[in-house]
Give the backbone structure.
Amino acid sequence: MSGRVGSLKELSQLEQALELDFYHIPLENVTDHKILTQIEYIALYQSKGKFASTGETGIHWYGRVADWKVLRRKEITERPARRGSEEKLYVKFTIDRWMKRDKPIVSGGRGIYTALYTSKYIFDRAAEIAELKLETEEDLIKWREHRRTGTVRVELDHEQVDLAKRVLGIHGSDEMNLRRS
């Protein structure tokens, strides 16, 4: 199972997505178009910069993709197009229904610039967004070991999780406490 975490530009985008059960992105933000057929879930990332006033930052909402279509931006009528984007190609995802996570995935000082792809397995277990970047079997094993004994901190080579090229380290709460002393 595959999922996509998309960042939101403003509160009204979240409100409309939740109310109208959809999400849209520029097709140019999808580097490998084959991945569109594999996306089963969409999750919404609420940045500190845009959503601090609401008290809800991080990832709170996700939903199963019912359908998707590539359309010109002007054909997505649920939300007005920005000037100049009317003819650009976008992907519109129709969502079965949005669900709220029991515990949000917190930013942990990181962000998502445009979009991040992750597995449902990691999404269901992550506590911080950096964990969504874990991809190799070796990293997953290390992460599971630390998670069993407490909290985990994933170090990446970039502040924006989707722009990070690699995982620099995975540390458990015992290692983090030693570093502080």
